[in-house]
Write a sequence for this structure.
């Protein structure tokens, strides 16, 4: 098995290995080698995906046939029950003593900061970055807004919901295994794509899934994602 | 791409894609809906490979647990939603078969895949033939096309395919590898 080295790549041999993997003729050991390579070699992974896509229509030749109804209840038990067992009643942050201590400290720090800054904060702010373009792809639910900060020469690209009949927002969600998704906020349309994560939420980012959904302007009215999820990925440890 | 549902009406791939997105947010209703829409398509894939109904149902359970766990890895640009689900189902079933009937590893050996470049005329015929797998399989010799199909649908190993077709193991490897390159040529890249 070749290493994922771009220089020693033989595309025809790789096409064959990718095709053999998708057909399923390889041994268990070779299948694990291919899967290890898939994780690190995007070009090879694209070959495998292409075979999956091309060959998948063969499956439509098979007559559809439902499994017995008990299959779903077993799946449901396996997926949902461990989560229900683990779930602990979560105390509201407003009832948390450490939160109020922290909040009091923060207020003190803020007032000290204001005194230290003095008249500085009343000076006129530098000109705000100006929106200069909206970028959209055909059929893509996501677009990009370009803001240009003329003073610094910086162009900022912010993801936004693509223009639709009614204005939409992109909302970011934190999804932990076995728990309901928590909103991390709406992606700012005018800023630089930064979202401040509350202290209490920060440790929860590790290993969780971040997902973006399209919501009514200003974010989901219910606190639960209502629109299609257009992007998601698991956060690495940091 | 559309896939045919149980009662003749077809299910749109973008609905499946939407549901997978919802499942990545741990939406249980979306999961139930995806199961209802797709189980009668994925079950026969398992049944054809594993043979026994109980084995196929056990595999199906594992497959939907994987779909629940891996929904966040689905990237709509890479494959269609149905191809993604079918890949999870097939690879799980193939792993079950390989664990049941182990075969020798051979990925290190030399690949005898020379002399498969199609002639220019062949190339132009292939292009006008279209890029669908059915059309491209028809362009292969009958026994080679049926070996490709049996590998994909039944999960047969090289050894099992060689026995079925009554040819030496190495001949079967050469058949399939050359067929794969011809299919790639025909399907376009």
């Amino acid at each position: 098995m070749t290493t994922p080295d771009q220089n020693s790549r033989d595309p025809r041999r790789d096409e064959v290995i990718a095709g053999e993997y998708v057909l399923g003729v390889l041994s268990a050991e070779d299948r694990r080698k291919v899967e290890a390579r898939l994780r690190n070699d995007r070009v090879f992974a694209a070959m495998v995906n292409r075979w999956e896509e091309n060959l998948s229509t063969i499956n439509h030749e098979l007559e559809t046939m439902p499994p017995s109804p008990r299959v779903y209840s077993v799946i449901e038990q396996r997926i949902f029950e461990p989560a229900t067992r683990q779930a602990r009643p979560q105390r509201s942050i407003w009832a948390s003593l450490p939160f109020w201590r922290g909040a009091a400290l923060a207020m003190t720090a803020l007032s000290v900061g204001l005194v230290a800054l003095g008249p500085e904060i009343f000076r006129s702010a530098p000109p705000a970055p100006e929106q200069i373009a909206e970028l959209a792809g055909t059929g893509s639910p996501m677009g990009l807004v370009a803001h240009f900060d003329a003073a610094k020469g910086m162009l900022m690209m912010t993801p936004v919901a693509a223009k639709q009949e009614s204005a939409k927002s992109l909302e970011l969600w934190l999804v932990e295994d076995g728990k309901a998704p928590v909103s991390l906020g709406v992606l700012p349309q005018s800023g630089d794509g930064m979202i401040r994560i509350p202290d209490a939420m920060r440790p929860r980012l590790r290993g969780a899934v971040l997902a973006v959904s399209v919501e009514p302007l200003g974010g989901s009215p219910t606190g639960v994602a209502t629109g299609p999820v257009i992007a998601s990925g698991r956060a690495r440890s940091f | 791409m559309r896939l045919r549902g149980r009662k003749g009406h077809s299910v749109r791939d973008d609905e499946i894609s939407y549901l997978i997105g919802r499942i990545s947010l741990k939406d249980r209703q979306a999961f139930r809906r995806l199961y209802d829409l797709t189980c009668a398509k994925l079950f026969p894939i398992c049944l054809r490979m594993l043979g026994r109904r109980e084995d196929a149902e056990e595999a199906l359970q594992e497959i939907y647990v994987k779909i629940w766990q891996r929904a966040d890895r689905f990237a709509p640009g890479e494959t269609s939603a149905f191809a993604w689900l079918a890949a999870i189902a097939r690879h799980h079933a193939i792993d079950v078969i390989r664990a049941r009937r182990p075969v020798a590893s051979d990925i290190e050996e030399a690949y005898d895949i020379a002399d498969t470049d199609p002639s220019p005329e062949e190339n132009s015929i292939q292009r006008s033939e279209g890029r669908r797998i059915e059309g491209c399989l028809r362009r292969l010799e009958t026994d080679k096309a049926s070996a490709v199909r049996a590998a994909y649908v039944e999960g047969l190993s090289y050894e099992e395919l060689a026995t079925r077709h009554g040819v030496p193991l190495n001949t079967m490897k050469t058949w399939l590898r050359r067929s794969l390159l011809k299919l790639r040529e025909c399907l376009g890249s």
Remarks:
- Chain B has two domains: 2-100, 120-187.
- Chain B touches chain A through 79 residues (CB under 8 Å).
- The domain at 120-187 of chain B is CATH 1.10.10.10 (Arc Repressor Mutant, subunit A).
- DSSP finds nine helices and two strands in chain B.
